[in-house]
């Protein structure tokens, strides 16, 4: 099975002025593409050559001999998911509503409390990693993972992610991670996609 670089779900300039076409050109066209190429190279001669991306992740997780393979496979999955988490707020819901909004209020107390926890996860992730909204045993939780780690291998279902590797924001925000996080949550989250993930996790 050959793994391919998925096309962006929008034009290269579709997230401007918040994420520039230059950032997407490098982030998608260079970083994400390199993970795909390396993954294909690593699995080509292995027993995992005919496995899906998710099967590779589960098989290689926490195996020291497969750490490079896991990291590249996970970054392919993480980035493919991350692109879908975004669109300009003017083209979608400004905030979650319906079933998802109700669940957020139940599990976090309020939407504002969720935002605070998500921002904190992004800001306190030391070095490279990801902030996540996940469904874990029926409950919504905010988590963070280092480097390429991801909820799938921890029995959690990802609903939303934010990339806090520096290459995700440095060309546009330099070292101002907090500004990037605020812009991401205020201007870019595709709540239609997050809600669809939540409903799918519930089996709806």
TrEMBL record:
According to the UniProt record, what class of enzyme is this? oxidoreductase
Residues annotated for Mn(2+) binding in this entry: 27, 79, 163, 167
Name the Pfam families on file: Sod_Fe_C, Sod_Fe_N
What keywords tag this UniProt record?
A: Iron, Metal-binding, Oxidoreductase, Plastid
List each copy of the Manganese/iron superoxide dismutase C-terminal domain by range.
96-196
What PROSITE patterns does UniProt report for this protein, alphabetically? SOD_MN
Q: Per the database entry, which stretches of residues form a coiled coil? A: none
Q: Which intervals hold domain Manganese/iron superoxide dismutase N-terminal?
A: 2-87
Reaction(s) the record says it catalyses: 2 superoxide + 2 H(+) = H2O2 + O2
Q: What is its EC number?
A: 1.15.1.1
Query: Which cofactors does the annotated protein need, by name?
Result: Fe cation
* Xref: SUPFAM superfamilies: Fe,Mn superoxide dismutase (SOD), C-terminal domain (SSF54719), Fe,Mn superoxide dismutase (SOD), N-terminal domain (SSF46609)
- Per its record, what are the GO molecular function terms? metal ion binding; superoxide dismutase activity
Query: What is the annotated quaternary arrangement, including any partners?
Result: Homodimer.
Hey, which family's this protein in?
Belongs to the iron/manganese superoxide dismutase family.
Its biological purpose is as follows: Destroys radicals which are normally produced within the cells and which are toxic to biological systems.
Q: What is this protein called?
A: Superoxide dismutase
Protein species of origin: Paulinella micropora
């Amino acid at each position: 099975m050959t793994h391919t670089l998925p096309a962006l779900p929008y034009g290269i300039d579709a997230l401007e002025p918040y994420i520039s076409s230059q950032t997407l050109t490098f982030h998608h066209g260079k970083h994400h593409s390199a993970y795909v190429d390396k993954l294909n190279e690593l699995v080509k001669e292995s027993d995992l050559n005919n496995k899906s991306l998710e099967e590779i992740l589960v098989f290689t997780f926490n195996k020291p001999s497969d750490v490079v393979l896991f990291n590249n496979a996970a970054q392919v999955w993480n980035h493919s998911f991350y692109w879908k988490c975004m669109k300009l707020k003017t083209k979608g819901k400004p905030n979650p509503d319906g079933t998802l909004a109700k669940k957020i209020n139940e599990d976090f107390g309020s939407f504002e409390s969720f935002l605070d926890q998500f921002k904190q996860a992004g800001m306190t992730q030391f070095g490279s990693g990801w902030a996540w909204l996940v469904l874990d045993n029926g409950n919504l939780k905010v988590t963070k993972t280092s480097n390429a780690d991801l909820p799938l291998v921890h029995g959690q279902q990802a609903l939303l992610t934010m990339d806090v590797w520096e290459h995700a924001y440095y060309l546009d925000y330099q070292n101002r991670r907090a500004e990037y996080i605020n812009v991401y949550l205020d201007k870019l989250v595709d709540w239609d996609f997050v809600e669809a993930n939540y409903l799918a996790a519930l089996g709806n």
